[in-house]
Write a structure and sequence with these properties.
DUF488 family protein, four-stranded parallel β-sheet, single chain, YeaO-like, 121 residues
């Protein structure tokens, strides 16, 4: 099934966002729950604190971070949240939200790839 999954900063919004799901472990600074306009907050699918701290959004570490996070996603601890994301994506457009400055090298990029391609591997 082709899923339309995008990623944005939680501070940005678009009328084409579809279901808006925050996938960060921590709540974004300076943002009220009302202003976030979320359909869900699935912090359980975010990288562990240890992995998040190790990575520190260092572009040099992205490939290793990607591999480690994919290994975490394969763990049963992420299954329920991942299933919920798949359900939302099957219903229409899904936007994965993060507070990180560069979503392209964040866990949202890995998660979007995993949700769209992971089942075909």
């Amino acid at each position: 099934m082709d899923r339309q999954i995008t990623q944005h900063r939680v501070y940005d919004s678009s009328p084409d966002d579809g279901a808006r799901v925050l996938v960060d472990r921590l709540w974004p600074r300076g943002l009220s729950k009302e202003a976030a306009h979320l359909d869900a907050w699935l912090r359980e699918v975010a990288p562990t604190n240890e992995l998040r701290r190790w990575y520190g959004h260092d572009p040099e570490r992205y490939e290793e971070f990607r591999a480690r996070y994919l290994a975490e996603l394969a763990d049963d601890a992420h299954r329920e949240a991942a299933d919920r994301l798949r359900e939302l994506a099957d219903q229409g457009p899904l936007t994965l939200l993060t507070a990180t400055r560069d979503p392209g090298i964040s866990h949202t990029a890995v998660l979007a790839e995993w949700l769209t391609d992971g089942e075909r591997r």
